[in-house]
């Protein structure tokens, strides 16, 4: 049962005046209105993603709204919510951060493991989130949103299980915001949360998610319109006139008069309903109210929404502490229990307040156990109360108590566990359900004011029953014990504290409360108020008719008298002992037995019964009487009461008209004696039966009490179960989400796994995974080439598998890798034609960096080795080549440069690489030459050509180039390579040969010219043809001999001694004596000098043979020479001296020889020559320069 | 040969003694006064000091080309002919018009060439 608010209500400040930031300006005519955006909080749990998507797919980006999404997220997982939602909306979606201002057209998403609240339009993020049982992120945010934004707050509860959000809605409603929930028929994955929200009755509209955006837009539009119409306070000007009408209608329909409530409160609440109903004016709303009976209930609920607070009416609590609690605790030990009942506890503030008082009174340790039963018919309130979680600031709590009895968790305060454990919350109707019993205190405040007098009276009976004697009852300030003062004694009148009176056992028996009709509470107020006039008429008529009707009593099933009517005193006489309303204790003894039979008939048979002919002694006179019993049923047709009427009129009538004759009286006397004896026997029998019955009733009573306590235990068990169910539910939800995430992770892993499998299957690299014990984990198919592996070998040690490769060191290598955690490499050379592998052993690191074995990869490097060898051979060839070998790209960039290239062109490999090939072009290169270096068209043509390129030092160098394309295996040209041969030497040789040829020609012709001259000269000097022949041949021979000598030394020069000896050879060694003597250091003569001198020596020798020293057998020739330096030239002084020959006769004419020596020789050699015909022999003296003037030999 | 009675002076620049002797003999037989030069320097000496009517220049004089002598002769308007074993191909373009006596000599050719040179001079 929710307590309605006591006026004045706490209301939030109206949104408009303070909130000036984050405003939007609307211009209508001359007026400027600035309204803040509506902040829409959306709560969801499992299944929320789909709902979010659906919502934003229909929600346009609009300046009037900002959104905050609160989703139950697992604290251990990173959330992708923002990213997912942003795919559905053009609005900016961001994860909420602390201090972030909420702006229109933005969507904020709660981060994982955090509590999200909002203060002054800024988001506050507190981490970590509270532990699970206290984790209510949606409630927390809705509550703070309501407090911060007032009527600008909108809250939506979407898919999810559990009940988070329901309590938050209450706060939103309190502050005048709008609440929406997802409709059950919608595509809600889990409808628990919206259903729970709806069941609070606090949801304004239940809608499909797709329809929510339209509703929001309409709501906003109407809100703006309403603001334009209304004054600055947001209150309708026309409200004043219509307020009374509304209240009258409400009073008439639900029977509660709100006219004493604060006016502004009422106006605001009515206006809220108008917004929800989408009615623009109060007049429209009144019309709506008249038409729609449901609206009365809605308005009533709107009015009832209230707040309770801790230690409300502190005076009452002070009184309780002072006057009640000491008595309650007096005489109670650790094994006793103090039992308190707080009916209508709402969200638990009062129950906790009492718990705190008791705990303060008992002290922290020891003392009796305290059980506070806090009940309410509103299950949402009970859930809230159970959580023990309250928004700061706490109303009514002193700082000391706040410090002592609460833990701060985020923005909330939680009641500490010892206090929480003192309270047992359960859903319970004080009207319908059996009460608790043996209580020490009942605190029932501000509940009775809503109940009419009958119900109040019944509740006092209930409380009386439930309380121990001397126990306390605390009521609200405007409630009092009017008609039950005999059951309770006033302890403190001002603060409405009472104590239960001690009453008789019989009374206690009768005071057991009877469950009333189920509908009594809901319908009674209306009936009572409406039926005032009828009742007055009824009462009057009944009073008038009393004297004509027989006296009667109305008894209940317990046979207690409930009503007396007429002069029943004639038939009733209280018996001695304790006072009792029990009918059979009161009834005239003569009437007891017949009455008992009739009453049983009425209750059991549900039919009227009549016993006639009874006689009763009244005031000493026998009176005939007819006893009538008639069952009285309740609305359900069940017999609840019985009317027992005493009809004397019938009796007197009979007595008057049937006077008994004396005969019959005598007979009567006999039979009456007999009858009286029988009667006496029956009476004693009946007494025994009655006593037996009463003891059975007592037994039942105690059994009932036992059941009560069992019921209590069950109730507290139930509560515990309820709490754990909630916990399970929230865990379940998180598991749901975690499961979904795990599912998607699993999908990714499956994909990855399949990728890995494909990689393993397709890789050519033989790979083997071993665990720490060298057992085979997995391997690629290529491994089977290396080891005799089969599918079933997984898990076996690799050392058990025979290898196809020669690798005895396997074990040591693996052990070493595991020891040093480094990488080991090894070449496995195959024997003969076997393949060669490069083996790498690495440690196997798991993702969390734990070494869990080894990975062996065997890369087949046979091909690569072969290529390497080939490459090495080619490289050696290239390197050793005398030709420049240059590689280049298709673009003409140099990529390789061998040593010869360096030698020929002068660039080092480092300088040349990366340069354009065209750097080798001479500046004055012809167009044709340049074409080779242009790579506009792809492809390189094989070509051979000669060109002149330049070196680094800009010297031209003739080259012979052989250019060829480099092709890949597909035959496509990918680069070029050229070989350039330095042909400058060949060119020189060619030029030299050419020159030599010309020179030869020249010399031959010159020689021929000399021969011609010799021939002509010899001819001139010869007397006969024979003489000519002899002389000519001898001269040619001398010439030829000199040529022979020159050819011997490749025309470098001729030894002077050799030249002389060549001419004089026949005489030099004749018979062992030398007739020719040479003096002088031998020297080399140039060809020119040699040729000229040889001719001169020939002529001298010929003359000596014919006429001189050699013409006889003893003459000698001395040839001596010396070299001297004069005028920086070397001169040869040579003398030819004959002796021992016949006497010399000076010739008369100058022959050819003389002319040749004196004229020709001196002429040609630019020297001097004298020839003297001395009597002792011819003497020839020559002085010749050995080198040309101006040059040094 | 010469109408004036003075024998014409012929410069023979030839370093080969036998050839020079042959030319000297041949030209003297033809009634010429022969001036002999075996070196370029001797040639210049003669050109500057003697009256020369015509000249026969061997292209190579003891390793030195005789073109400087040719230029000096041309300056003085003295007709000349080259004597060479190389033939016409060995001559620079500037001397293309100069007659060439091929070695070995045709004596008649020598006389005819000298005649032509002397005629040109007058």
Chart the SSEs and their pairings.
The complex is a heterodimer of chains A (about 1200) and B (about 120).
Chain A: H1 15-18, E1 24-28, E2 31-35, E3 38-44, H2 48-58, E4 65-71, H3 81-86, E5 92-95, E6 106-109, E7 115-119, E8 122-126, H4 137-149, E9 153-157, H5 166-174, E10 178-182, H6 192-199, E11 205-207, H7 212-229, H8 239-254, H9 263-277, H10 282-291, H11 293-304, H12 314-329, E12 337-343, H13 349-362, E13 369-376, H14 379-387, E14 389-391, H15 399-405, E15 406-409, E16 412-415, H16 417-422, E17 423-427, E18 439-444, H17 453-466, E19 467-475, E20 488-492, E21 497-500, H18 505-510, H19 520-530, H20 532-545, E22 551-556, E23 561-565, H21 583-586, H22 589-605, E24 609-618, E25 621-633, E26 639-647, H23 648-657, H24 662-762, E27 766-770, E28 776-779, H25 810-820, E29 824-828, E30 837-845, E31 851-860, H26 862-880, E32 884-889, E33 894-897, H27 899-905, H28 909-912, H29 927-931, E34 943-950, E35 956-967, E36 973-982, H30 984-1021, H31 1025-1048, E37 1054-1055, H32 1056-1068, E38 1076-1079, E39 1084-1085, H33 1087-1106, E40 1116-1126, E41 1129-1139, H34 1152-1165, E42 1168-1174, E43 1177-1185
Parallel strand pairs in A: 3-4, 3-9, 4-6, 5-6, 9-10, 10-11, 12-13, 12-18, 13-17, 18-19, 38-40
Antiparallel strand pairs in A: 1-2, 7-8, 14-16, 15-16, 19-21, 20-21, 22-23, 22-26, 24-25, 25-26, 27-28, 27-31, 29-30, 30-31, 32-33, 32-36, 34-35, 35-36, 37-39, 40-41, 41-43, 42-43
Chain B: E1 9-13, H1 17-29, E2 33-37, H2 40-49, E3 54-58, E4 60-61, E5 64-65, H3 67-75, E6 80-84, E7 100-102, H4 107-121
Parallel strand pairs in B: 1-2, 1-3, 3-6, 6-7
Antiparallel strand pairs in B: 4-5
Helix pairs in contact in B: 2-3
Pfam families (chain B): Response_reg
Keywords (chain B): Phosphoprotein
InterPro entries (chain B): Bact_response_regulator (IPR050595), CheY-like_superfamily (IPR011006), Sig_transdc_resp-reg_receiver (IPR001789)
